[in-house]
């Protein structure tokens, strides 16, 4: 690590002002992506602006169409919310599988999505649930938000304030975790929406981060069952390959986790 100046704003306006005035600055919430990057000197901001104490970033709202979650809401709060459990039980269950108790207590939904960490769970949920990312400047649909590993449509200094998810008719999530890090090597979130639209999103496995699988979506739109996915594969050429698993291994995991997600609709399954 190296010297950095810590700032604790109490409003969005103050956070934005600090960012503009500080020069070399970075926002931090849970810190589970930024702090490891700082420890390895992959990131070196001179100023850290902590968003955890900004009240505008809190709160959960549920309507007949959507679930809206403040960006500063922790994974634990999402997992324990009765309103979310009733509206989108798979989303709450997925939040309860993230990391360990310490990670869930500190990590936030906004930080997870804003960093687009390839090992994060939430990006798959945002894509599959046709989510919307609300910032202090605009509203961005999920399909236009994620742009590659650690890359998003966010502009310099822009703050994610809320995330909105469409209420699906059915949803399921399954992931295979690296036994050491607990990060998903492949996680698949599947959601069927009104009108028959099906969205399948994969996290943890792709070269370019979270992505959708059109072939699976089309098959499930015709027959919303695990059997409909038989024989559908993803290309290893689009998969990550490292010491934990080859591209071919991850490609196979995507198919297996998609079937597990379909077999556990209304819940989330984490496999070690």
Description:
The model has no long low-confidence stretch (mean pLDDT 94). A five-stranded antiparallel sheet has the order 4-5-10-6-7. Strands 14-13-12-11-15 form a five-stranded mixed sheet, sandwiched between helices. It has a three-stranded parallel sheet with strand order 1-3-2, with helices on one face. Helices cover 32% and strands 25% of the residues. The radius of gyration is 18 Å and the shape is globular. The two termini are 32 Å apart. With 272 residues, the protein is of the alpha+beta class. The protein has eleven helices and 15 strands. The protein has three domains: 5-50, Uridine Diphospho-n-acetylenolpyruvylglucosamine Reductase, domain 2 (2-Layer Sandwich), CATH 3.30.43; 55-166, Uridine Diphospho-n-acetylenolpyruvylglucosamine Reductase, domain 3 (2-Layer Sandwich); 170-266, Enolase-like, domain 1, CATH 3.30.390.50.
Beta-strand percent range? 15-25%
**Spatial shape:** globular
Uncertain stretches = none
- Structural class assignment: alpha+beta
- Walk across the major sheet and give the strand order: 4-5-10-6-7
What pattern of helices and strands is seen along the backbone? EHEHEEEHHHHHHEEHEEEEEEEHHE
Rg of Cα set:
18 Å
CATH architectural grouping of the largest domain: 2-Layer Sandwich
Number of strands: 15
Task: Summarize the amount of helix as a percent range.
Answer: 25-40%
* Number of distinct helices: 11
**How would you state the average pLDDT, rounded?**
94
Query: How many structural domains are formed by the residues?
Result: 3
| Main beta sheet strand tally, sense and closure | 5 strands, antiparallel
> Would you state the CATH class of the largest domain?
Alpha Beta
Distance between the termini: 32 Å
CATH names the topology of the largest domain as Uridine Diphospho-n-acetylenolpyruvylglucosamine Reductase, domain 3
């Amino acid at each position: 690590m190296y010297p950095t100046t810590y700032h604790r704003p109490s409003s969005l306006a103050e956070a934005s002002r600090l960012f503009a005035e500080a020069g070399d600055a970075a926002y931090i919430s849970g810190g589970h992506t930024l702090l490891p990057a700082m420890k390895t000197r992959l990131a070196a901001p001179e100023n850290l602006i902590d968003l955890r104490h900004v009240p505008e970033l809190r709160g959960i709202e549920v309507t007949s169409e959507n679930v809206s979650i403040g960006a500063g809401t922790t994974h634990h709060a999402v997992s324990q919310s009765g309103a979310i459990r009733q509206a989108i039980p798979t989303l709450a269950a997925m939040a309860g599988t993230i990391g360990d108790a310490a990670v869930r207590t500190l990590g936030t939904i906004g930080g997870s999505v804003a960093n687009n960490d390839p090992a994060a769970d939430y990006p798959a949920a945002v894509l599959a649930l046709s989510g919307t990312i609300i910032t202090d400047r605009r509203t961005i649909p999920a399909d236009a938000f994620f742009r590659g590993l650690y890359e998003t449509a966010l502009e310099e200094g822009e703050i994610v304030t809320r995330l909105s998810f469409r209420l699906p008719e059915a949803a399921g999530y399954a992931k295979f975790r690296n036994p050491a890090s607990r990060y998903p090597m492949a996680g698949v979130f599947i959601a069927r929406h009104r009108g028959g639209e099906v969205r399948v999103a994969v996290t943890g496995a792709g070269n370019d981060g979270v992505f959708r699988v059109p072939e699976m979506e089309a098959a499930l739109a015709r027959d919303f069952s695990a059997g409909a996915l038989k024989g559908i594969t993803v290309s290893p050429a689009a998969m990550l390959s490292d010491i934990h698993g080859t591209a071919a291994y991850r490609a196979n995991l995507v198919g297996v986790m998609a079937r597990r997600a379909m077999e556990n609709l209304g819940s989330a399954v984490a496999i070690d």
